[in-house]
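Query structure, 486 tokens:
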């Protein structure tokens, strides 16, 4: 596959060109180790390294062209240099052009927010398939091209991978694609050059401050997604979240709202909730769904609105809402024969823990006991650790602090950070067990019939990352195995 450089540059704001643009390009890379003869190298300033440092290296590899924000002091003959204001933005647009602008040939819907992105995007993908459409999905758990599952490494892939996946969806005949749009993706311009049919905002709470620095920066990274939507797109926002209106202040898209508490274009209401489902209404229509809790009622109300805005038949959408099933590792229940229940959930922020534990408390009542097993990820926002422990402790009868993905940190130091958020009473009801399997086993041993164990933080993840190595570990497998012994 080759493309004329001049065609690839047609959507790029170019500051200066040195050399010939009427040349063939055999590939695009932002990784200096992967680019070779005849390729186009895009020098991107990343969080770990600056691609501009590697321009001399790629020049010696006989690349055809280099895109950069700063021209090198030494200009090599036979190489075309393209200076741009923002090379990350340029990479997204170049990737889209290289793959034939696949987002223009799909109805692409993006989902952003702190919690609920995976559930919302996945359920829209499932809804499209129930409606009889071929569809694709880009999510934290797994990517899909129709039925084909493709492992994922990031919530939102890099621009080259992302556009390659969208092109595969087009080739497979997909009419729709649904994707999570992370704050990292927006900050790093990974979705630059994509055309969206619409965007959804779920909610905003503290997360990823290790990367963004402040809540304001994090919020504005989310808002940037709606700022980029075109005038013919829809922007669907949760107006029960205080950031909902802010997200769409400057959008060109047509704004729609959803809510459980206020008047909105799409209104949900919870009538009854149980461990195996919820009775609710959507715009006055009563239905039974296989999801539990108010947080899932928000997700479902967003899905309902987005499905209609995406062009699905409203009557069929209502029918198919009852056929949707929960996403793996999202409030996923396991039961023992003796009546002990375990819930595996991805909750890894203070707000997510509040949502899940409040839902469990609503189901078990004031007399039921909740045992929570939770940790916090290493090399991530330290500030949320004591907050997570405090929220879990005040909503649980027993708390077990354990290891999550410690990465390159000492897991006991992470647990110590979490313990710092607890008062004397909460500490008296807290155990610290670093080994995650042992912690879950202790919770199962402590539980009595009618108790609910929340195993939080990892959800769908089938691994535990320690010192840069991923070891197989799946909360769902461990929960099912231990409960089967009761």
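Result returned for the query:
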């Amino acid at each position: 596959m080759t493309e004329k450089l001049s065609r690839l540059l047609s959507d790029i704001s170019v500051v200066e060109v040195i050399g010939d643009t009427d040349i063939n390009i055999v590939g695009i890379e932002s990784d200096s180790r992967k680019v070779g003869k005849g390729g186009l190298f895009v020098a991107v300033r990343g969080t770990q390294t600056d691609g501009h440092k590697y321009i001399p290296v790629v020049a010696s590899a006989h690349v055809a062209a280099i895109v950069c924000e700063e021209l090198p002091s030494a200009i090599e003959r036979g190489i075309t240099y393209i200076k741009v204001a923002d090379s990350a933005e340029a990479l997204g647009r170049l990737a889209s052009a290289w793959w034939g602008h696949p987002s223009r040939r799909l109805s692409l819907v993006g989902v952003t927010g702190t919690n609920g992105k995976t559930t919302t995007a996945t359920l829209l993908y499932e809804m499209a398939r129930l409606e009889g459409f071929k569809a694709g999905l880009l999510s934290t758990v797994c990517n899909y091209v129709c039925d084909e599952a493709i492992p994922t490494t990031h919530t939102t892939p890099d621009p080259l991978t992302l556009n390659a996946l969208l092109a595969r969806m087009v080739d497979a005949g997909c009419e729709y694609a649904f994707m999570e749009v992370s704050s990292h993706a927006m900050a790093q311009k990974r979705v630059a050059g994509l055309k969206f049919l619409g965007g959804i905002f779920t909610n905003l709470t503290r997360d990823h401050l290790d990367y963004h620095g402040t809540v304001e920066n994090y919020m504005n990274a989310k808002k940037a997604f709606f700022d980029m939507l075109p005038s013919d797109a829809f922007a669907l926002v949760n107006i029960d979240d205080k950031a909902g209106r802010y997200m769409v202040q400057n959008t060109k898209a047509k704004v729609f709202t959803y809510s459980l508490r206020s008047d909105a274009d799409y209104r949900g209401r919870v009538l009854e909730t149980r461990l195996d489902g919820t009775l609710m209404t959507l715009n006055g229509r009563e239905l039974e769904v296989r999801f539990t809790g108010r947080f899932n009622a928000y997700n479902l109300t967003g899905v309902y609105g987005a499905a209609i805005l995406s062009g699905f038949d409203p009557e069929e959408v209502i029918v198919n809402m009852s056929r949707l099933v929960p996403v793996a590792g999202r409030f996923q229940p396991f039961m023992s024969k003796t009546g002990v229940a375990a819930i595996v959930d991805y909750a890894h922020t203070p707000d997510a823990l509040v949502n899940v534990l409040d839902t469990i408390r609503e189901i078990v009542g004031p007399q039921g006991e909740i045992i929570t097993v939770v940790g916090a990820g290493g090399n991530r926002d330290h500030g949320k650790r004591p907050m997570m422990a405090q929220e879990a402790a005040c909503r649980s009868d027993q708390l077990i602090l354990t290891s999550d993905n410690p990465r390159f940190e000492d897991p006991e130091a992470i647990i110590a950070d979490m313990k710092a958020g607890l008062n004397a009473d909460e500490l008296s009801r807290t155990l610290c067990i670093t080994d995650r399997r042992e912690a879950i086993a202790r919770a199962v041993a402590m539980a009595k019939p009618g108790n609910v164990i929340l195993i939080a933080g990892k959800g769908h993840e089938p691994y535990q990352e320690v010192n840069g190595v991923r070891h197989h570990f799946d909360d769902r497998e461990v929960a099912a195995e231990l409960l089967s012994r009761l």
